[in-house]
Amino acid sequence: MSSTGQDVGGAEPQTDWETIQASPEFTDLRRRLRSFVFPMTALFLLWYLLYVLLADYAHSFMSTKLFGNITVGLVFGLLQFVSTFVITGLYVRYANRKLDPVADEIRAQIEGEPGK
Fold it and tell me: More exposed terminus of the chain, fewer Cβ within 10 Å: N or C?
């Protein structure tokens, strides 16, 4: 582009990312993402902090045997991994339903695809 904003030599026009970022569609997409990510992150961090605090300050509770050599602490530790996978699955489902359609719409507008 020349300094006047016109195409030089048939080059494709540049995308105005600041305008796209300020658009209502992009703002909605950002709001939808944050409405999932921030609460889920806070919930997971609280769950992890509970595990750490119990491991540090509730030794007798965490060392309680449930069956065989399986203790409450071991189960809580394994549930940390399970919760990570559950959160990942929930995010994928949420993104497929609430984020991807809006992102696809924005992408179609940027790329100039008609009918989307």
Answer: C
